[in-house]
Amino acid sequence: MVKNKNIGGRHHRSATCKTKKAGSQIPSSKDDIPPDDPADGDIFAAPPELLTTSQGQLGFPDRVYLLASVIFQNNHLEKLASHRLVNYGKEKGLPLPEVKDEMQHTAYELAFNTLKYQELLEDIMIDSCFNLTQPLPDDQMSLVAVMLYDLQDRKFLPRERQGDEEFVQEVRDVEICLLRFKTKLAASLARCRIKHDLLTIECILPESLKAKQERSSSLPLYAWVNALKGSLDEVRIVLKSVGLSQVKSIGQLKGQTFCQDPHCEDMLVFPAQLKAELHSTKLLSDHKLIIQDKFCSLGPNSVCSLLPDEGDVLMVGCFSGLTVSHTASLIAEEHKANVNYQPTVYVCVSNRTDAQREELQQVVTLMGCKNVKLIPKVFQSLDSDEKQLEKVSVILLTPKCSVSAISNPVEFILQENGDTDLLQDLSQDSVPQSKLKALVAQQRKDIDHALKFPKVVAVVYSTCSSYPEENEEVVSRALEQANADSEQEGEPKKADFSLSPSPFSTPHHAEGPKETDSFFMLKPSEQNNGCFLAVLVREPEPVVKEPPQEVLARANAKGILDRIGPNQPTRKEHHGHSNRLAKATHARNSQHHLSVSIQSKSQESRSSNSAGLCGHQEFGNKRESPQGKAKTLRLYPSKNSVSSSFSLPKKENTSSFSSSPKPEHSTPMKTTTLHPAPPPASPVAPVVRPRRAHQEVLKPVVLVLPPVHFPNFFPPQHSRAGYSPNLNYNKWRPPAQTGPASRSSGSFKSRPFF
């Protein structure tokens, strides 16, 4: 677990230790220092003004110097042999000695400062002839450089020692040599400052590096609220209870105040000096409030906004257990109402040691996260075929980068599991082109592989670099490559990715990108470190509109439209065709009601010359028994209507139509209403309902009706001899009409019979 530790250096040393008198600051007895240097006879008589310094604790434990020297040895700048006057030995890549966690940060900070002033420290040793007169081997010169920087930082005062401090003989030997030579070393430092006209030694640094160093001392504290341990409102109440007041913007932070971050709603910002105050509230110890750089919170917030209801997250790159916990807590809180599925955060930890994996798991457990799973595989070997990754919808990619946009790189690298090999380049604020190309090559591989997951809907790419080669150029090139591969492989356009607008909006009082920007970028300032973030989303599958000819062809192939094609003749052109009767059967079955005009055979001769005569009906001259076959009915549809021929099923004691023959002396014609027949026993393919055409004169159509029983219609004496036209048909009364009658002709209106 990464704890909050004090970083080494003059500004971070504890102010609780009191400065002892000159006589009590002796690192060892006078006998331990060789008396062969008369110029250093007054080494214990420090000026009175130096004894009242407010630097705090003077010096560090022996183990800190030892670890810092190994870090410096592995990362120092090697000069050419012809220009090398101070030799540090040829060994590099030495294993780091184990120290306590609180000592590790201090040692890295001390080594980083020594790297920044390596050129100046070497000039001091050469000018004072320390490297030539002191009998120290080359492999101890790294320890000399580290302790010399600390010695000049505390004005060449002897360090204070704790009673239980671990004793390291190698460190004590170098310390004795430096203290014996401290007067000459101080004089050499003064000559170097005069030579380069340096008001302070910081003036020898590059302007960009000086700006970073100044910004790092004023950076505010960023802390996100752990939703699994507490709420934002609960944290605000606790902060206000200890005297803190909330302001509107970061620019208003002063004294006992805090504000909400303009981009991340779950993040609060505090002045740097309130760190001790936050510890006193127990919000940090209870893991309700987590101090972490703002850059680390942008990725988790983006992922949470992009994740669908049933999707998982895959995290790849350099990040700490705090970043994993932040992502997991946001997702768990966002999807807590989904009882059917809880998203999982998969973490690729192939580049971690066993100790680092164990530490990450401990941090996740302490934060209360239960939806995190570690994958000990190389990211390049993972694909969508992995069973546990089949629901991964969003990938958070934070690759190894140059960390060039971070003002406090040492603290950031250690907290976020960064690359310590970058310390030497960061100490000079210049990354060699060869190393930058290697970083970019790896970043391209990672983002290219992330875009190959077919079920991934979004990839969040985030760096803390200020180089366009690691930011815009990598993303643009990855999009071009992904789309080009999609076209070459013949994949559909749905595999294309595009840039999504910035997921973070910027209020009017904050400086940052506009909401419509494709990339989210923050420049390093006194309020925040720099960062870059891009969201690549998969374009939705395009809707392909099939031409009407292809739709009809597919429908005809399946028998849906009964071979109706785009070149089929119109209804008028198709009039009289022999196949028209069969097609009309399907069209008539799709209608709910059918009304036709029928006239009996006896009325046909008298009404043939009447105006508006347009209907004719013909019954078969052969009478069937109630159990006989269905009767045939000929109808006369309109000119443009589709002809039909259908059979009505049998139904005892009922009739599917109603008729009332007209007496001989009657001139007007009456109509008969037919109700639709039930669907046939055999399934009929669905048809498209034709548009109702203009109604014109009816034409004959053959309708096969089911047998109708007339128990009282024909007397027994006439059952075999045919029927007589003089029978009283009015004795049989049709049932009342139950539904509205549709009109099949514009010349006649349906009306009920009595």
From TrEMBL:
Biased composition range(s): Basic residues: 8-21, 572-591
Record's keyword annotation contains S-adenosyl-L-methionine: yes
Active site annotation, chain numbering: 464 (nucleophile)
Keywords: Methyltransferase, RNA-binding, S-adenosyl-L-methionine, Transferase
Highest classification ranks of the organism: Eukaryota, Metazoa, Chordata, Craniata, Vertebrata
The SAM-dependent MTase RsmB/NOP-type domain, residue ranges: 211-539
Alphabetized InterPro entries for the sequence: MeTrfase_RsmB-F_NOP2_dom, NSUN5_7_fdxn-like, NSUN7, SAM-dependent_MTases_sf
UniProt entry tagged with the keyword S-adenosyl-L-methionine: yes
Protein family (similarity comment): Belongs to the class I-like SAM-binding methyltransferase superfamily. RsmB/NOP family.
Protein's UniProt name: Methyltransferase NSUN7
Molecular function as annotated in GO: methyltransferase activity; RNA binding
Biased composition regions of type Low complexity, renumbered to the chain: 595-610
Record SUPFAM superfamilies: S-adenosyl-L-methionine-dependent methyltransferases (SSF53335)
